[in-house]
């Protein structure tokens, strides 16, 4: 049973981490920080990076946020620890990203905390009038997506 429990645990971690990273991407598709710089594109990477830089941990730079997007793509599309650019090592701990020459170490617990913090920032900024709809997003489309920003 220990092997089965470990396999289930690994799948839960994979699915949970992917789900949290998709929240970042969808946030970027839906909202923007008021007064934020124009994003370089409207694709998934640009919207993920926009949400990460506008609402996420200010200590993370563009490269770190791009690495998180690469993790999201590896989990979602390759179902593995690799994508065409990088190898990832998933760990438990509090340091979100540690980029090494051979691979990037991504701490799952820290991903979850990063996204919770990002969502809390969106909620706080929304409450103070600091959030606007992303380009091409309408209130009707947002409601249809059932995406809500409520405290």
Description of the structure:
With 151 residues, this protein is mainly alpha-helical. Helices cover 56% and strands 11% of the residues. The chain has a three-stranded mixed β-sheet with strand order 2-4-3. Strands 1-5 form a two-stranded antiparallel ribbon. Strand 3 (97-99) and strand 4 form a beta hairpin. The longest helix is centred in the N-terminal third of the chain and has 29 residues, at 2-30. The chain is globular.
What is the topology?
Blueprint: H1 2-30, E1 31-33, H2 44-55, H3 62-78, E2 88-91, E3 97-99, E4 104-107, H4 108-127, E5 131-133, H5 139-144
Parallel strand pairs: 2-4
Antiparallel strand pairs: 1-5, 3-4
Low-confidence stretches: 1-8
The run of helices and strands is HEHHEEEHEH
Largest sheet, described in full? 3 strands, mixed
Q: Quickly count the helices.
A: 5
Main sheet strand line-up: 2-4-3
Radius of gyration over all CA atoms, rounded: 16 Å
Shape: globular
């Amino acid at each position: 049973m220990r092997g089965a429990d470990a396999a289930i645990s690994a799948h839960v971690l994979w699915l949970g981490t992917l789900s949290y990273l998709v929240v970042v991407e969808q946030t970027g598709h839906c909202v923007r920080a008021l007064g934020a710089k124009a994003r370089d594109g409207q694709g998934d990477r640009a919207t993920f990076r926009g949400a990460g830089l506008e609402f996420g941990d200010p200590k993370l730079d563009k490269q770190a946020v791009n690495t998180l997007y690469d993790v999201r793509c590896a989990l979602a599309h390759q179902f593995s620890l690799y994508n065409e650019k990088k190898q990832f090592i998933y760990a438990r701990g509090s340091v979100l990203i540690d980029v090494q020459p051979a691979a990037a170490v991504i701490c799952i617990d820290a991903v979850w905390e990063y996204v919770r913090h990002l969502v809390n920032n969106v909620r706080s900024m929304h409450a103070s009038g600091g959030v606007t709809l992303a380009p091409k997003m309408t209130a009707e489309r947002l409601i249809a997506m059932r995406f809500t920003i409520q405290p």
